[in-house]
Amino acid sequence: MNFDQPLLEGKLVRRYKRFLADVELADGAVITAHTPNTGSMLGCCEPGSRVWLTESANPKRKYRHGWELVEAEPGVLVGINTGRANALVEEAITTGILGELQDYPELRREVRYGSENSRIDILLHGGERPECYVEVKNVTLAEDGIARFPDAVSTRGSKHLRELAGVRRDGRRAAIVFCVQRGDVSEFRPADAIDAAYGDALRQATAEGVEALAYRARVSETGVRLEAPLPVVLP
Questions:
Q1: Are residues 107 and 167 in the same domain?
Q2: Residue 164 domain-assigned?
Q3: What tens digit of pLDDT does each residue of 160-182 get?
Q4: Residues 60, 131: one domain?
Q5: Which of 31, 41, 194, 197 has the highest CB neighbour count under 10 A?
Q6: 35 CB contacts (<8 Å, ≥6 apart)?
Q7: Torsions phi, psi for 170 (to 5 deg)
Q8: Starting from the edge strand earliest in sequence, which strands make up the sheet with 173-180, in order?
Q9: Which residue from 109, 182, 174, 196 is spatially nearest to 145, judged by alpha carbons?
């Protein structure tokens, strides 16, 4: 996935109110940008970090700029826009990168399902294989080369795992894909120290047949693309 236009580089002043960030541009001007990420962004919102922004010409937008990337470590760019994750996974499915989810002729998005009134991110169906319900999670947190999710307590995330387990009990296929928008990691694990309940829910879901997949992205100033699977370790 390539960005539609060149990104604007700046320096993070602060992130606040979850969805706002003040960024200092090269000319010294400070602008407020929308932050498309509901998590804590642990390790990805340190003041002084290099960041990259998109710019919209839509006059209806309150904030013209959107935060897209951050240099979390020297030379390590991280995609913080959770709104990109579904499209990245869809692209990886259609181009054959995400090999586990191939051979489905039809793909639908945001389909209602489950007993807790949820929407599945991607529904794969058609052909001779059972329908596959795919939940996507954007991952930005890394510790010692290990990608982790979530970066804050996520009751909604646990709910999604319960729903996927219900899909499996009904005889259909279910998968959760952790879209890791950074390239400096070698495996994925749940962030038990942050949300032990989520880790337990993930283990329970996989015990019931939910497939847990993680893919690492190549992130640059021109685009983001999933490129390689990561081992999912559930200690």
A1: yes
A2: yes
A3: 999 999 999 999 999 999 999 99
A4: no
A5: 41
A6: 15, 18, 19, 20, 21, 41, 66, 67, 80
A7: -85, 5
A8: 106-113, 118-125, 132-139, 173-180, 211-219, 224-230
A9: 182
